[in-house]
Design brief:
Layout lengths: L1 E7 L2 H15 L2 E5 L4 E9 L5 H9 L6 E12 L4 E8 L2 H16 L12 E10 L2 H8 L7 E4 L1 E10 L2 E11 L2
Antiparallel strand pairs: 1-3, 1-8, 2-6, 4-5, 4-7, 5-6, 8-9
């Protein structure tokens, strides 16, 4: 099983973000993210016999609803060498705190900690940028979409299909 822990973006924002993705897609050769979510931890290939202990550790996590909204656009690893286009989130401290808690719980059962976590939503993976000026124009647009709450984290199984990866919900873990 190819597992990761994330929270989905509320549906009311998805169509707007799809429009942004279409604009970004016109700037070069990109693969647009099909599933819009905030990834807290990627576990990778995991043996089925570890599934119950992962669920148990995730059920131990206690967190309150986290109110957030979208901030600025950015790139990984840098603006000069663009491989991923992302959209940042407000209330980073609380989101990072939740991610650290997830990391600490799963570290106890053999998963390495992620010291590079940055709260974001991946919009596209980049092969090359043809029109960097147009991309910068998109990046400079202000998104006033409103806020939403992170009130659950989900354990997903990422299944490879002919159309890309399909994300199967294995378990939801709700805020307290």
């Amino acid at each position: 099983m190819r597992l990761f822990i994330a929270t989905k973006i509320p549906e009311k924002f998805v169509s707007i973000l799809r429009e942004v993705q279409q604009q970004i897609g016109k700037c070069g050769k990109l693969t647009l993210a099909k599933e819009l979510h905030i990834t807290f931890k990627f576990l990778g290939e995991v043996n089925l016999n570890k599934l119950d202990i992962i669920k148990e550790k995730l059920s131990e996590i206690k967190f309150k609803d986290i109110k957030t909204s979208f901030t600025n656009f950015g790139c990984f690893p840098s603006n000069k060498e663009i491989r991923v286009v992302w959209l940042g989130l407000n209330n980073e401290k609380e989101i990072i705190k939740l991610q650290i808690d997830i990391d600490n719980k799963l570290n106890k059962v053999g998963f390495e900690k992620d010291n590079r976590f940055s709260p974001h939503i991946t919009l596209a993976r980049v092969k090359y940028i043809q029109d960097k000026t147009k991309l910068n124009e998109i990046f400079n647009k202000e998104l006033n979409l409103g806020s939403f709450e992170i009130n659950k984290v989900t354990l997903f199984n990422s299944i490879e299909t002919n159309e890309g990866y399909k994300h199967e919900v294995l378990n939801d873990f709700y805020s307290s």
